[in-house]
């Protein structure tokens, strides 16, 4: 089980970043790597609330986790600390045993001058997921989050 960690300084207040982590509309815009589109099926942003999201590759591929072109995952919000932390647990909807298992994603936010330091930790990656690939996709997503919150 692998772990990836990302640190990013965002030029936006913590409250703005926190809201973007918990808004279905914002998540659909930023929580998607390049060359993919996102569809938020459900999103109940409260402790214990559930979500379900599909990411679809823009061009046909054979690397999808749920189907040839799609990665669908569902999960729940475990802990929400306003303007400070979001902890969620998720798992892919897949028949591939190497891609099964619950992963934990923890976002922590801290004041940083005129912005926010975001630390993201993605724990318990399934054995079939490359930490390097996960870090690349997650980095693309965080780049989109930065653009979204910094344009306010």
Automatic annotation (TrEMBL):
SUPFAM superfamilies the UniProt entry points to: Bet v1-like
Q: Known InterPro entries for this protein?
A: ASHA1/2-like_C (IPR013538), START-like_dom_sf (IPR023393)
Q: Which residues form the Activator of Hsp90 ATPase homologue 1/2-like C-terminal domain?
A: 11-150
Mind telling me which Pfam families this protein's record contains?
AHSA1
Q: Which parts of the chain span the membrane according to its record?
A: none
Q: Which Gene3D superfamilies match?
A: 3.30.530.20
User: What's the protein name?
Assistant: SRPBCC family protein
- The organism is Streptomyces silvisoli
């Amino acid at each position: 089980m692998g772990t990836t960690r990302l640190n990013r300084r965002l030029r936006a207040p913590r409250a703005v970043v926190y809201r973007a982590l918990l808004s279905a509309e914002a998540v659909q815009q930023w929580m998607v790597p390049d060359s993919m589109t996102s569809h938020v099926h459900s999103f109940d942003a409260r402790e214990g609330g559930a979500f379900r999201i599909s990411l679809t590759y823009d061009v046909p591929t054979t690397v999808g986790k749920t189907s040839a072109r799609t990665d669908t995952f569902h999960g729940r919000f475990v802990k929400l600390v306003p303007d400070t932390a979001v902890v969620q647990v998720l798992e892919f909807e897949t028949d591939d045993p190497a891609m099964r298992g619950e992963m934990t994603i923890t976002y922590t936010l801290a004041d940083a001058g005129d912005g926010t330091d975001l630390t993201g930790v993605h724990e318990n990656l399934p054995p079939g997921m490359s930490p390097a690939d996960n870090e690349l996709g997650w980095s693309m997503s965080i780049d989109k989050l930065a653009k979204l919150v910094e344009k306010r």
